[in-house]
């Protein structure tokens, strides 16, 4: 029962850029949509364009998403993952 509750619990958004109120979820979505650099993310949502304190966190998220994109998922052939 506890596992079901935890699996279905809504996780509150994590603010990455406090100046522009941009969440981690928004940044990950932009990266998955093709914003592969910090400047592309900044152009899309204005994150890191004020104080710049979130720049390292944004770059970490971009690297994490790039690694995920390169790693084939279980049960998916490499050829299918490349399509």
Distance between the termini: 38 Å
Average predicted local confidence, pLDDT: 84
Identify the strand order in the major beta sheet.
Answer: 1-2
Flag low-confidence runs.
76-83
Overall form: globular
Radius of gyration: 15 Å
Strand content: 5-15%
- What would you call the structural class? mainly alpha
The helix/strand order is HEEHHHH
Number of strands: 2
State the helical fraction.
Answer: 40-55%
Main sheet attributes: strand count, strand direction, barrel closure:
2 strands, antiparallel
Number of helices: 5
Write the layout of secondary structure elements.
Elements: H1 2-8, E1 15-17, E2 22-23, H2 24-32, H3 38-45, H4 55-70, H5 78-82
Antiparallel strand pairs: 1-2
Helix pairs in contact: 2-4
What does this molecule look like?
It is a single chain. This protein is 54% helix and 6% strand. With 83 residues, it is mainly alpha-helical. Helix 2 (24-32) crosses helix 4 (55-70).
């Amino acid at each position: 029962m506890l596992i079901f509750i935890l699996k279905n619990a809504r996780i509150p958004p994590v603010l990455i850029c406090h100046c522009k109120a941009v969440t981690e979820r928004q940044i990950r979505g932009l990266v998955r949509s093709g914003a592969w650099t910090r400047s592309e993310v900044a152009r899309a949502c204005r994150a890191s364009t004020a104080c710049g304190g979130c720049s390292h966190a944004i770059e970490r998220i971009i690297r994490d998403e790039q690694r995920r994109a390169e790693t084939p998922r279980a049960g998916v052939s490499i050829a299918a993952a490349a399509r």
